[in-house]
Design a protein that fits this description.
It is built from three helices and four strands, in the order αβαββαβ. It has a single domain (9-93), classed as Rhodanese-like domain (Oxidized Rhodanese, domain 1), CATH 3.40.250.10. Helices cover 26% and strands 17% of the residues.
């Protein structure tokens, strides 16, 4: 899992797809999510991150628009016991097709 250094959201999204049980979390607001998100992503806004209900050992790949909110979300997730949470940056750098 990509935990350290510069992360490429495109590579990380592919890694997420290939990691059994992994979840791709989009922590943007619902209106941002509905305007276009990475296929397969689940929307859980940063403001509601404490309501996360996955098993604690779930690999969580977290993104937002540019990477700031995803870093804050990962900090909160780690405080909640999610050690396999990683910020993969922002969708602004994503080059693949988006779901709407």
């Amino acid at each position: 899992m990509l935990l350290f250094g510069k992360v490429d959201i495109n590579e990380a999204a592919e890694e997420c797809r290939n990691t059994p049980g992994a979840v791709l979390l989009d922590v943007r607001e619902p209106n941002e999510f509905s305007s276009g998100h990475i296929p397969g992503a689940v929307n859980l806004p940063l403001s509601k991150i404490v309501t996360v209900s996955y098993p604690k050992d779930t690999p969580l790949y977290v993104y937002c628009l540019h990477g700031s909110r995803s870093k804050r979300a990962v900090g909160a997730l780690k405080r909640l016991g999610y050690e396999k949470a990683a910020s993969i940056g922002g969708i602004a750098s994503y080059k693949g097709a988006l779901e709407r």
